[in-house]
Inverse folding.
């Protein structure tokens, strides 16, 4: 039994460089507090983990079903505000504890996702992108005009901490990030024999009319994508509010929506790991450039332009294509520097 | 109050029409959403400020002259627009999402460059004309009259260009069907280049016209950005008529909200976007948009 497990591990993880890198990365994430417990670095990584969930959920909706969502911050902001309002209590009802506010915040984001679907299901391409862009901006207008509930420009502050220690916060964020990414990765796995959603979402992206003609209820699947993506984006928004202890209008900002897109496209769209890689490179990079804050956004924009012009498939996919090669005969993934396939011995060149 | 609403609507609507028209032209011809469009509006407004502000010009101050400033900022902005097209958009024109992302990054980059050069503080450009005119008991600043009249003339010129000249016919043919236009001997990439120049110039004219009436800051490109998106979606993407009519409809909505609601200043964008969404629910192709059979769901 154990030796069988070990053999699987050897064949399916060690032999494939992409998976090996992912494994090393996850182990390092878990061991990280052993190297340094600097509050600033841990805090940055906690936020990175939250934004990883956020970017991956954008990839889930827009990358896989091809429904270009330019207002992804809606989910993040709705969840952050709902969480903060429930937790703060004061003008609206009692004070809610943290274990209740986060799930309710995430569910509120699901509701927002379904509402956003009403026009989204009828529109396509640029129309859809522009309508989704509008939703968070409408909500921002509402937030600025009802300042007694929302705090206006300042937002809602003074909400509960997640836990009392930064290291515990860090582990919560890592575990939640891993579980969410794993769930979304499994749901979008086109080769999976357990769930059909992966292959159906690919079909909707490639040709929606053909998918409908094959008897797939595309509307139900698009709704499903918006609900699940909304849930995870909301989860990250709600947890972000508790980590930051403030929910402000910046959580609905245009720039946040675009950052999710940029992180994902930078890493590689329609590949869950691309969003993870993109966020883990770009967010800490832009955060650490804070000391030259005037140039930060400029550098960010220039990086995006260069990546889109010269590496349009994304950096993670580009690296994967360099280090992995598929066997032409048995379709098994090999290290690119092997000359013959590790299973069937076919020539790889 | 009704007179006030009408005047405001006409002035705002004409500025929005200039911006939306350029955007609709680019979408119609190249089928791309050029999201850095309103950054040319911002650049032109800053250009006007730079070339008229005595303190900022320093030893070149004697050169400051409104007419020179207008021509210079118009030319420079158009040049920047053409450069953006050649450097960034032209290479990835076939990929919708890439164009949207790249032009958005360009808009962010322009905003940051302006922050670095001019710092984030508020600036203002001098009016071309001072004084006001009383129409039906409403005081209308001459600057606003100028905005309306100039915008109207520019719109007429563009209309004449599109309807009466060979270039206009070529532009419309390319918008209808790029491949057939190419087969008929129209150089599509030249047309796209020219349309990009026209659109950037229209945005620059809008920026120059409104610069004296508002505070200049690098973030000033976002409010009209949202409005232009709403207008062209409402009017039907790529429809010239739709973009002009949509501009006046949404300007009316915006003005009504500002005049009638106490917190209207915050809700004006939201109300305009809400109108857009409601129209799209009932007419997914916008008011004057065309649906192609293969795009219908």
């Amino acid at each position: 039994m154990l030796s069988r497990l070990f053999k699987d591990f050897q064949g399916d993880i060690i032999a494939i460089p992409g998976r090996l890198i992912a494994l090393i990365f996850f182990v390092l994430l878990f061991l990280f507090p052993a190297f340094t417990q600097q509050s600033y670095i841990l805090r940055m990584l906690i936020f990175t983990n939250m934004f990883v969930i956020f970017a991956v959920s954008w990839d889930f909706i827009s990358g896989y079903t091809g429904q270009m969502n330019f207002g992804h911050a809606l989910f993040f902001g709705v969840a952050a505000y709902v969480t903060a309002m429930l937790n703060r209590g004061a003008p609206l009802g009692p004070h809610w504890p943290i274990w209740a506010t986060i799930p309710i915040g995430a569910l509120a984001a699901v509701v927002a996702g379904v509402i956003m679907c009403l026009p989204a299901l009828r529109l396509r391409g640029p129309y859809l992108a522009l309508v989704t862009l509008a939703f968070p901006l409408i909500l921002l207008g509402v937030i600025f005009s009802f300042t007694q509930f929302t705090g206006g420009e300042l937002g809602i502050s003074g909400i509960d901490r997640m836990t009392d220690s930064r290291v515990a916060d860090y582990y919560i964020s890592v575990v939640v990030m891993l579980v969410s990414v794993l769930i979304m990765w499994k749901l979008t796995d086109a080769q999976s024999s357990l769930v059909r959603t992966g292959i159906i979402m690919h079909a909707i992206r490639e040709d929606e009319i053909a998918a409908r003609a094959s008897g797939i209820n595309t509307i139900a699947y698009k709704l499903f994508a918006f609900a699940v993506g909304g849930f995870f984006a909301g989860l990250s928004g709600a947890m972000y509010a508790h980590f930051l202890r403030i929910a402000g209008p910046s959580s609905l900002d245009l720039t946040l929506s675009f950052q999710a897109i940029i992180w994902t496209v930078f890493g590689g769209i329609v590949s869950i790991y691309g969003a993870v890689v993109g966020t883990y490179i770009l967010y800490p990079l832009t955060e650490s450039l804070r000391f030259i804050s005037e140039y930060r956004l400029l550098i960010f924009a220039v990086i995006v332009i260069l990546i889109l012009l010269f590496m349009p498939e994304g950096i993670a996919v580009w690296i994967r294509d360099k280090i992995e090669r598929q066997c032409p005969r048995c379709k098994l993934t090999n290290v690119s520097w092997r000359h013959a396939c590790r299973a069937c011995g076919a020539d790889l060149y | 109050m009704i007179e006030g609403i009408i005047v405001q609507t006409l002035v705002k609507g004409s500025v929005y029409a200039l911006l939306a028209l350029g955007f609709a032209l680019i979408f119609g011809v190249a089928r791309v959403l050029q999201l850095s469009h309103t950054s040319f509006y911002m650049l032109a407004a800053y250009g006007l400020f730079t070339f008229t502000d005595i303190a900022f010009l320093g030893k070149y101050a004697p050169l400051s002259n409104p007419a020179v400033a207008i021509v210079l900022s118009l030319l420079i902005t158009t040049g920047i627009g053409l450069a953006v097209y050649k450097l960034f958009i032209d290479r990835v024109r076939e990929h919708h999402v890439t164009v949207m992302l790249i032009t958005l990054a360009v808009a962010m980059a322009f905003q940051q460059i302006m922050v670095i050069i001019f710092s984030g503080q508020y600036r203002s450009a001098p009016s071309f004309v001072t004084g006001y005119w009383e129409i039906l008991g409403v005081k209308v600043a001459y600057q606003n009259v100028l905005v309306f009249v100039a915008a109207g003339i520019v719109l007429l010129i563009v209309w004449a260009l599109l309807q009466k000249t060979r270039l206009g016919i070529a532009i419309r043919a390319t918008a209808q069907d790029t491949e057939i236009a190419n087969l008929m001997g129209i150089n599509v990439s030249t047309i796209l280049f020219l349309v990009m120049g026209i659109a950037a110039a229209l945005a620059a004219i809008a920026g120059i016209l409104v610069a004296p009436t508002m505070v200049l800051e690098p973030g000033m490109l976002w409010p009209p950005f949202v409005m232009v998106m709403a207008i062209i979606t409402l009017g039907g993407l790529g429809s010239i008529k739709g973009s002009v009519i949509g501009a006046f409809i949404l300007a009316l909505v915006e003005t009504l909200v500002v005049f009638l609601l106490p917190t209207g200043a915050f809700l004006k964008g939201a109300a305009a976007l809400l109108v857009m969404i409601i129209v799209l629910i009932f007419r997914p192709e916008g008011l004057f948009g065309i649906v192609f059979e293969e795009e219908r769901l």
Summary: The longest helix of chain A spans residues 39-65.
